[in-house]
Amino acid sequence: MRKLLCSLLLVLATISIHAQQMKLALLVYGGGGDWYANPTALKNLAQFCNQNLHTAFAAAEAQVEAGSADLFNYPFVHATGHGRLTFSDAEAKNLRLYLESGGFLHIDDNFGIDPYVRPEMKKVFPELDFVELPFTHPIYHQQYNFPNGLPKIHEHDGKQPHGYGLIYKGRLVCFYTYDCDIGDGWEDPEVHNDSPEKRQQALQMGANIIRYVFSGGAKS
Predict the structure, then answer these.
(1) What Rg value do the Cα atoms of the chain yield, rounded?
(2) Which of 55, 90, 101, 129 could tie 6 with a disulfide, CB 3.0–4.6 Å?
């Protein structure tokens, strides 16, 4: 009954936000990591989606803590950073309820967060492991087609990018983009001086994630 109530609250919150103007949300987390690392990213992703997906997102992002009831106001939550990420038991419980109830978490490794993502998400879903999504997964084939998976935005140590997912009862609830730095590609052009082509790829993949989430998310 509690999960059903939370699902209903998430739906009602979405309807309410649509009546106003929906915001993409940035996850505020503990541990000392820089959750605020990409201050212009969600603003630019919202603008790109408004122009190309005909959405109506507000330019300003929402910032929401993992343990807050406000989490249920946002169908899409983005987390990033370079350092330590931690969830308390209460935050992990709240985040799990949010994801079980229809919410979606996108985590982007901003080169340094990876050692913390897996153990902390184990607190949220002890029974689940991240699995690499095949290139045929619908998230890569929404408005834009990415037949080879995630685009490589920043080189870092030269590894190939990987897209991992947590799949709960047949639904992708968390998408983890690793060694890709897609969020950096969403930032203002002068922040990282990425080429227009790289920024376009990053924004297009971001738009795919948004469309996947807001179209209901095909079964994985």
Answers:
(1) 16
(2) 101
Identify the CA nearest to 138 among candidates 49, 218, 52.
Answer: 218
Which segments within 20-145 are labelled E, that is strand?
25-28, 62-65, 76-81, 104-109, 131-132
Q: Which DSSP state fits 197?
A: H
Distance CA 166, CA 174 (A): 5
φ/ψ bin of 76: left (φ > 0), alpha (ψ from -120 to 50), beta (otherwise): beta
CA distance 163 to 177: 5
Report how far residue 204's alpha carbon sits from residue 202's, in angstroms, rounded to the nearest whole number: 5
Strand-strand pairing, 62-65 and 76-81 = unpaired
Long-range pairs, 17-22, Cβ under 8 A, ≥24: 17/73, 17/74, 21/56, 21/57, 21/58, 22/55, 22/56, 22/57, 22/58
- Residues 89-122 pLDDT 10s: 999 999 999 999 999 999 999 888 999 999 999 9
SS3 of residue 178 by DSSP: strand
Looking at residue 178, its amino acid is Y
Do 208 and 139 meet the contact criterion of CB atoms below 8 Å apart?
yes
Residue range 65-89, pLDDT digits in tens: 999 999 999 999 999 999 999 999 9
- What Cα–Cα distance (Å) separates residue 208 from each residue in 12, 107, 150, 160? 24, 15, 11, 20
* Calpha distance 25→17 (Å, rounded): 12
The predicted model scores a pTM of 0.89
- Give the whole-angstrom CA distance, residue 57 versus residue 188: 18
